[in-house]
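Board notes (copied after class):
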Amino acid sequence: MERHYEVDESDAGQRLDLYLVHQNPALSRSHVQNLIAGGNVFVNGDSAKPGSRLKAGDEVILREIQPKDPIPVPEPIALDIYYEDSDLVVINKPRGMVVHPAAGNYSGTLVNALLFHCHNLSGINGVFRPGIIHRLDKDTSGLLLVAKNDASHLNLSKQLQDRTIVRRYLALVHGVVKENQGVVEAPVGRHPRDRKRMAVTKTGGRQAVTHYDVISRLEKVTLLRVRLETGRTHQIRVHMTHLGYPLVGDTKYAPSRNHFGLEGQFLHAQVLGFKHPSSGEYLEFSAPLPEELAAFLEQL
């Protein structure tokens, strides 16, 4: 990744290393000096020294070296397997487990466990997401579909694209939902100010459709059955927040709410149904609430 700068009159005479630190507060001076020494900084097309004095109008290019993520390795982590054959595996993912390695989570993920358990996984999504058809957030529990070969991956991904895979969730939300059922159809995209969150957007979002039915109403919360028609990042969490009924435990989308001591959103992928990629037979699986969420609900 390259960053380009044009030196203003106000910065004329400044040292190159200090100039780049001021332009990039997240970078330390020693890191900037190492980048310069490594030939990754240019002034008017030529390499320079940390103490080089800049002139107004100088063009500075900073070539930031991105560290390589470590390749995921097999780890002997127990899996709750609901179904498995030569084409696929259905996993009941626990709360707190990340699906695939990413910054800050390079071990202990579902992928690390799958690599230990399975001899083969689809390679379509690369080495960091082998076999992963769809994802669940870290604190979302429930059923997840994994492909063992590329043919199965393509078939199941097509079913997901065609919206024929059945995905039903249990969600506990703040507030008493008045309607017995409803549909949210609102585009989801990156939040305009907080890039770590998603939001219902007027422009730039992708179509997202969520169906919900009320299972039971308590004094301050409502238990919903939610069906995904599309699968956008954080879709249920974003859509329910958009309606004014954020998920209990969801501090990302409802930081000021009293979550009754629950850490992580109350969201469980209960039902997963699809056609087997080889036989065409319809398979459907159901997983009960994890004990932690069942006990929390009983307490409420």
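Comment from the instructor: The two ends are 50 Å apart (CA to CA). The chain has three domains: 2-63, 68-162, 164-265.
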